[in-house]
Amino acid sequence: MALPPVLSRGATGIEFFSNPASTLSQNAPDPYLNGLPDPVFLLGVDGKIIRANARALSWLNKYSVSQVEGYRLNELIEANEWNGAAGSIEGKLLGRFFESGLVPKNVNLHLGIQGECEYTISEEDSFVLKASLKKIFSDGKARLLLTVQDITETKQKELLQNLFMHDLANRVTEVIANSELLNQFCKKGDTNPESINRWTENINMISKELGLEVSAQQAVATMELKKMSAHPSDVEALEEIQKLAAHFYPVEKDHKVKLQVCQDSKDILFSTDPVLLRRVLTNLVKNAIEASKPGDVITLGCREGKTTGLVEFWIHNPAVIDEEMQSHLFKPYYSTKASTRGLGTYSIKFLTEYFLKGTVEVESTEEKGTCFRVAYPLALETQLSA
Q1: Burial class, 348, CB count within 10 angstroms (exposed 0-12 / middle 13-18 / buried 19+)
Q2: How many domains does the chain have?
Q3: Which residue range is the domain that position 66 belongs to?
Q4: Does the pTM of the predicted model rise above 0.70?
Q5: Cα–Cα distance, 34 to 55 (Å, whole number)
Q6: Are residues 188 and 324 in the same domain?
Q7: CA-to-CA distance for 232 and 10, rounded, in angstroms?
Q8: Within a domain: residue 327?
Q9: Helix 274-291 and helix 193-221, axial crossing angle in degrees, nearest 10
Q10: Contacts of 121 (CB under 8 A, 6+ apart)
Q11: Which residues in the chain show pLDDT less than 70?
């Protein structure tokens, strides 16, 4: 396959041909680089920008090459922290390059590196880049060719899909557990209508909720993240946790723990997205059960929030989360379960804060055990802020 007009192969590798410097405006983006679809930079081996295309200038919110020429990227991108996406070696190396503006010593630039890295500019704002860095030759001199793609939106959609699949598996677990218990009753010849009705009603209710969650996810798949919003309706707080406790009865029985609703819980009517709330509360209960030992008692409840206009749900178990784990608790793909990598706690935080406009707190000590609290406004606005 022929290379683009901007590139051809020479004896020393890829040769970069450009117009003589005298024919190029100091303010105009490079006309050859402009033929490439993504932000592209031509750098010196010291990491300083020599040329850039129009997409690169737009990405940096600049309008002329003179505003970026001679600068390293770390001087132009305001970032608090750079990390390799998903812990990849290439991503970490690119993260170090963007953070320092210098190529790490252990990088073979003849082969080049490409990968994904994440940078944050605040606690709320983070971005994911797909980048490629390779040594080329321009006018007989060694240069670096850097291409960049902002794939933040794609990664956010992927994460939403993964969160949904994780939470969907939780609900399927409830269906299976209730079905198995119903099957055991039938095999024993138990024809008590109350027992049978209890499990069939649970299965029916969970199945309907699953249908609503799948429908909601289908809408998400075709929507931009910034346009997504919650769909509030009236919810009775106490009824919600009572239903949840009933659904999880077979699961708690299997784990030999006791799940109970606090007697002091208040029946508070509020407006929120019931599908998303259920996903949050399901994760809280499932995590508490999995963290507990046989014989442990898990308590969940609801009450008026510490601040007027809020409703608070909480769940307590005797297990302890150490400080190291607490510092990573709400990061995606991090789990307190040593053998797996989870999304449960991240799902709790993301759905609560982004869609339901609530807050999440966790307290864990040897003396008190672990308590998660989520608080939500009594009336959720239907539109997300842009």
Answers
A1: buried
A2: 2
A3: 7-150
A4: no
A5: 8
A6: yes
A7: 63
A8: yes
A9: 120
A10: 78, 79, 80, 127
A11: 1-31, 84-87, 123-124, 190-191, 195, 199, 209, 211-213, 215-228, 327-328, 331-343, 382-386
